[in-house]
Amino acid sequence: MNIHEYQAKELLAKYNVAVPKGIAAMSVAEAVNAAEELKSDLFVVKAQIHAGGRGAGHFKNNPEGKGGVRLCKTIDGVKEAAEAMIGQTLVTKQTGPEGKEVQRLYVTDGVDIEKEYYCSVLLDRATSRVTLMASTEGGMDIEEVAEKTPEKIHKVAIDPATGLQPFHARKIAFALGLEGAAMKSAVKFFVSLYQCYTDLDAAIVEINPMIVSGGEVMALDAKMTFDDNALFRRKDVAAMRDETEEDEKELQAHKYDLSYVALDGNIGCMVNGAGLAMSTMDIIKLYGGEPANFLDVGGGADEEKVTAAFKIILSDPNVKGVLVNIFGGIMKCDVIAKGVIAAAKQIDISVPLVVRLEGTNVEEGKKILNSSGLDIIAANDLADAAEKVVQATKNAMSRAA
After folding, report:
1. Cis before 291? omega within 30
2. 149, 151, 389 from 154: Cα distances, Å
3. Cα distance between residue 208 and residue 151, in whole Å
């Protein structure tokens, strides 16, 4: 689960991680009131969407204008910036060309920046340890830094039995070239950041940039994501979820405990098992098609979940064909077959449907589908299924054109 920058900073502040003063605003009037309350000589107005690169982005209604992060010297300037952002669609390198509508703003104090750095706490799967990572290349794409100048990234893997110790924090601070008051501030900053990460079951806490201002280390920007599986014990964090930032189909999938990610293609996929789902998407592309989604119904899905999965797939107007690829293990083929039929009775399946079943109760599943009266294209194996769904989808689109 993702949250907005202002929410991340609220959580960080509770752990004594230094952040600039700021107030969230849901309207132009609230943005003006926030600026009046802050009483600063310099304000920063930030668009709040779940995507990075906001400052370098552009608004659809004004492609040549300023981005989603603006410096303002007056309250009138804050009002002007808020009017230009609220309700408009911001396009960044992470949103794709469709962009995201800005419904929230964050008005903060402007601060003097002596130096920018990068800092994050995340799980390094290579070491199976939570890792503190930092770099002198603040404000930049850390993936680009890792590719071009990996020596500028400093890491320390943390033993879960001891947690982040002050000497770990000092090691990273030394590597960044910090000294004096900034060194002491950084040690406190890193330890608090790690505590926030572990206490809240975060998946990543990323500060980019982390800055030094007047000898104090603080988070100028912040990104936090959380482990969905732990939200049941983090009710305060779960309450921060902004469903307007999420795909409606993904929200529906979440309600039925389905793993679904919308993609840009036109062939819907219903599969059981993440590995099989990835293989199915790959082979669709191999045969010249484009998957419209990743959808894993899991090993314990029942007829209701399968029906819901089918509805979610077909609710995407871009879907022009569907491939159901099931290997029956824990998930039985007859259950999938019944779910497909139940979905067909509730919604009109007007696109080609290719089904490949194998494994537990496969013959029973095939009998159920064959006697259903549905126009189903049967496939013998994965390659046959991919070839048939790609060709059937192309034929259907040609007829529609």
Report:
1. no
2. 11, 7, 47
3. 18
3-class state of residue 159 by DSSP: coil
Q: Classify the phi-psi angles of 389: left when phi > 0, otherwise alpha if psi is within -120 to 50, otherwise beta.
A: alpha
Place of tokens 């960080």: 12
**pLDDT one-digit tens code per residue, 202-211:** 999 999 999 9
Whole-number Cα distances in Å, 224 to 21, 118, 159, 333, 365:
18, 14, 22, 40, 44
- Nearest 5°: CA angle at 138, between 107 and 144? 120
Task: Name the DSSP class of 138.
Answer: T
Question: 149-185 as b/e, with b when 16 or more CB fall inside 10 Å?
Answer: eeebbbbbebeeeeebeeebbbbbbebbebeeebbbb
Q: H/E element holding 9? A: helix 5-14
pTM listed for this prediction: 0.79
The CA distance from 349 to 344, in Å, is 6
111: part of which helix (H) or strand (E)?
none
Predicted pLDDT at 345: 78
Give the Cα separation of 34 and 37 in Å (integer): 5
CA atoms of 355 and 334, how far apart (whole Å): 12
Q: Which residue is catalytic, options 5, 6, 137, 206?
A: 206
> How, if at all, do strands 216-219 and 100-101 pair?
unpaired
- The residue ranges of the chain whose pLDDT is under 50 are none
The one-letter amino acid at 76: D
Distances from the Cα of 193 to the Cα of 90, 121, 185, angstroms: 30, 7, 12
- Which of these is catalytic: 117, 118, 194, 197? 118
Active site residue 118: yes
Residues 6+ apart with CB under 8 A from 327: 272, 273, 276, 358, 359
